[in-house]
Amino acid sequence: QVHLGESGGGLVQVGGSLRLSCKASGLKFNLYDMQWYRQAPGKERDLVARISSNNADTNYGESVKGRFTISRDNVRRTVYLQMNNLKPEDTAVYYCNTVARGREFWGKGTLVTVAS
Fold first, then answer.
1. Contact 90, 114 (CB under 8 A)
2. CA proximity to 99, closest of 42, 34, 50
3. Least buried of 85, 97, 102, 112, by fewest C-beta within 10 Å?
4. What is the pLDDT at residue 15?
5. Is 114 helix (H, G, I), strand (E, B) or coil?
6. pLDDT tens digits, residue range 22-67?
7. Distance in angstroms (rounded) separating the CA atoms of residues 44 and 56
8. Rounded to whole angstroms, what are the CA distances from 107 to 13, 65, 67, 84?
């Protein structure tokens, strides 16, 4: 059974940093691209960042380019999201995501709150 478990969220001041982690189990982690999404209150879930299975390619949403960095450790089966220079509009629940074996899997999310 595939399980994605996020951690690292919390309350941070404007301009601060957080590092999110997502530990995966139940799948051959190094075969699959991984994504971070976020959903702010009253808004749709949006793609934040994506990383390819072999760490070679990354993509970012326009609003986080230059501030967020996605990375992964295939030995630890973990994907990370380093978030710097946080803004109030980054406040959201952040979700880990992958598509494996033709199915989409989500974690339960971790809340990031940026206080101004």
1. yes
2. 34
3. 102
4. 98
5. strand
6. 999 999 999 999 999 999 999 999 999 999 999 999 999 999 999 9
7. 28
8. 25, 23, 23, 22
